Amino acid sequence: MRNIRGITGVRARRGLVLSVAGLTAIPAFVLGTGTAAQAASCTTSTGPYQKQVEKYLHLKVDGKQSSADCAKIRSFQSTYGVTPTIGYAGPVTWRTMQTLTAQKAAGKNPNKAGKCPTNKGRIACVDLTRQISWIQDGKKLKFGPVPVRTGRDKYETRTGAKKIYWRHKNHVSSLYNVSMPYSQFFDGGQAFHAVGVKMWNPPGSHGCVNMRTSDAKSYWNLLKNGDDVYVYGRKPGT
Which structural domain, as residue segments, surrounds residue 93? Predict the structure, then answer.
């Protein structure tokens, strides 16, 4: 969050106490970057979504875990930051595959269903269901769609019409001492900002819209204070 000197005026005007909605002190094994995740062995257990995962990965669809299945599933989990990386065809792995499918289907027409307003001029749209965001001007797509990582269960990114009200390029949380580059706050402590984890890494943020650094930088260059933000849908698993 901002230093006390920098936020006194904003707090007085808005009655807000900004919290770190995007990043917290998450154990290494949750992020999939610690020794616990790396040292995990390949499971021999058959997961509840074994057949679905086998089909997605173009494996033999027999619903039975094999060493080949586990290797492929672990590779997928490692690529997309799904933890624990043990090759288990569980709900998080299958949900990630479904999200990826929806994201790819969005193509270059993410607002095909017209759920994000087209009468606002420039606006940043966030679809929690597909975990994507994009910037449009009227009906014209200006940037994206890009994958995002939104609020986990009990810390959901709030839906509705918002506006960017404060930006801080090199923001650091004073609460958790965590870097939040290219922060653009649009709803209390909820903001667009870059993170160092993959967008599909469970369980999600504490409300912020996490982005890859390159995407957060593009949002920083394209948006300004007062620009509209519209958040809709529901994140899978919340």
Answer: 29-104
